[in-house]
Model the fold of this input.
Amino acid sequence: MTQKKIKSYLEKILNSNEFAESETSKLLLEYLVNASLTDEMPKESTIAHEVFGKEISNSKTETNVRVYIRNLRQKLDSYYMNEGKNDSLRFAIPKGRYKVHFRENKKTFASTPVRTWWIVSNILLALALIAFIFIFLSKAPFGNSKPKNELAEHGVWSNLFDNKKPVLLVFGDYYFFRYHHSIPGSRYIRDFQINSDEDFSLMVQDSSDHFIPANLTYLGKFALWTLFDLEKIFHNMQKTVEIKLASDLEWLDLNKYNVIFIGPFKTQRLLTSILQSLNFTYEIHPNLLVYTDQDTSYSYHAVKVKETGYERDYTLVAKLPGPNNNIIYMFSSTHDIGHTSTVRSLTNLEKINNLGEPFQIPENLRYFVGIFQVQGFERTSFDPTLLHFRPIPENFKVINPKID
Done:
């Protein structure tokens, strides 16, 4: 791997569509690559001064530098999902570091058969139960669960039923890996920092242990809880609905379906590019959600206190135009209490109308994004509080996947 090859791929990235309209990301990536080639480890103060011409005088400037770095990571992820998916050399900026890693793009990891049968049985049972409950509730009347017409006609949901495409419910599932050697009683490993094959590849570069990805994931209980609430929308509405895990989601799905994603930020997988398009960034530790509105950044920390059971969560709720005349919904937060509470509120007409004046959606407003604060105890939540809300224009491009 030569500097000439690295510089060649740097030029390719800087001239890509992903980076075309982001001079800040271009300058930052070029600076970090050159610093890494000379084995420099720049600090935030150095980056602020040499890239942006600013002196660090307060914590806001430090936060802005970290936001720029997170945005750059998101843009690289999106680039490698689209234009750069066949690049033989890839750039990566590990979380918590400002040094660029250069690595060959090789598919070196393969899944091996799972031998912890009780884990597999429980997961299959849970998925079968979800499928059974959803089919049962969507096909047959159940008590007085038939929704009022006003709910399906409300601006949050109305054009979903006018759209002829089927609905795909996507539930975020957690990433697992394990030791290379399969031995009786060996455990699967869940690391909150490792949430995708990309994260895993970066981890094993610096590890002397022999790990491989596991061929299983973990789905939280929120999937069952939110299905009961969504049933109020789809019951007897003559709408085809399918279910998929985020780990199985493909770019083609985002063209074929109206997509509703529900799950933690760290399980978004392909959908992380949407977060970036909306000026949001998320940091897994210490569970930081950052929203930038023009020149102002807002930071929100999720809180979970084991001793008391108190939880405070922040949920991104978005209804967005998809890439193929379809609709993409997102209900995403740090803990289950966030996305379950907001789904419950937005499938209840009375609660929708009591969310506050900013959320009174006009008839001509079809798309929006908002941040909700959710508080509660032991997964029992109070009604969400709307903190930010803004309309999204119909020509807004959140993603531009290239389908082979």
